[in-house]
Design goal:
By secondary structure, the protein is of the alpha/beta class. It is built from 5 helices and 6 strands; from the N terminus they run E-H-E-H-E-E-E-E-H-H-H. It has one domain: 3-Layer(aba) Sandwich (Collagenase (Catalytic Domain)), CATH 3.40.390. The chain is globular.
Amino acid sequence: MKGKIKVITTNAQNVMKIPTGVKMLIRRCCNAVLTHENFEGNAEISVTIVDDERIHELNKQYRNIDRSTDVLSFPLGENGVYDINHDTGAKMLGDIVISIEHAFEQAEKYGHSLEREIGFLTVHSLLHLLGYDHENGGLEAVRMREKEEAALTQIGLKRNGSYYFDEE
């Protein structure tokens, strides 16, 4: 990455204690993605940690989906064109909202650490802010998963199992 990155992390919930080092982890994840993507210029990203109730409200309000989810991405750019913070000249990539309750449940379900799960959700969401999408499946989804794993491996959070569960 050529430029500075500003990650504004806010804990907007009081349901669970956030482990020490999570803000640094989120920052490292953002750096890894932007480096891997050869992002040029200064960047600004906002990450907010919320509870399930709040992410449910946001999911309903912005996506018309009446349930909680693990992470939401609110991009401020399109096709590589971003709003600029006129005080710093940084490209404002957008907002990431992570449900700490979902992160904890998924870490347990997938058998890895809460740090790995928060790292995955951060990387996944930042790729959305950069314009990647997996909603239609296929090659785009595979490319996004490869980019996620590359960034996570770079910071030492390599996957230790499968994300897919056979419900039968």
